[in-house]
Amino acid sequence: MPAPVNEFKKALRSGECQFGLWVALANAYTAEICAGAGYDWLLIDGEHAPNDIRSIMAQLQAIEGSSCHAIVRPPVGETWMIKQILDIGAQTILVPMVESATQARDLVRAVQYAPQGVRGVGAALARASRFNRVYDYLQTAGNEICLLLQVESRLGLAALDEICAVEGVDGVFVGPADLAADLGYIGRPGEPEVQVHIEAALRKIISHGKAAGILTADSVLAKSYVSAGAAFVAIGTDVGLLAGGGTRLLEDFKKTL
């Protein structure tokens, strides 16, 4: 029995745009609720949410069985972190703050077993192999791993051609918030100058045959990114839904009094 098919990676290769939601509440119960909403993918955030390896695993377990695919973002692109995330069952990883082709090549090696890479061989102990019940996991896992790199700085943009040229990179995600800050527009990713850089980056990623991704809670911008050819687009966050919905509920109720 081979490793499970990565349906998200398969969809990206077919050219289907996948719509997602950022999951940052660090809770398996809310992840399960979001997984039932019909999104193509959920991003479990280990960079800016209070997650650890156990809470990430619990959310993977909660999402499994739904039609939604789980993506995990580690805090940084460290090989040991990636090893743990893969072993608990993640098949798609989004690595933040990638700024060079050298870094991209190191990350490709981190998600592959030797001799192609440096991922530690511990599948017999791992949830990813169903605790060694997927008998040929070691031989087939690499084909189903989807590696996404996040470019979100001027340095990253300058190296984008070289990053996209690295074999084994499945997609590149443009991080609008950090990019806006690096361009001098902190907290204002919708500024025209920022959008010019984002649109150029999306075109460049697509020109290399890589899947392009982005996050925005602005529906107008989200539609423009889809029209530009983005292949995976997050259209909001669980935090935003709860905070915004809670505020609107109270405000709307008070208006009726």
From TrEMBL:
It comes from the Bacteria. One of its GO terms (molecular function) is metal ion binding. It is an enzyme of class 4 (lyase). SUPFAM superfamilies: Phosphoenolpyruvate/pyruvate domain (SSF51621). One of its GO terms (cellular component) is cytoplasm. It catalyses: D-glyceraldehyde + pyruvate = 2-dehydro-3-deoxy-L-galactonate. InterPro entries: Aldolase/citrate-lyase_domain, HpaI, HpcH-HpaI_aldolase, Pyrv/PenolPyrv_kinase-like_dom, Pyrv_kinase-like_dom_sf. Its cofactor is a divalent metal cation. GO terms for biological process: phenylacetate catabolic process. It holds the Pfam family HpcH_HpaI. Keywords: Lyase, Metal-binding, Pyruvate. Its EC number is 4.1.2.52. Residues 18-242 form the HpcH/HpaI aldolase/citrate lyase domain. Belongs to the HpcH/HpaI aldolase family. This is 2-keto-3-deoxy-L-rhamnonate aldolase.
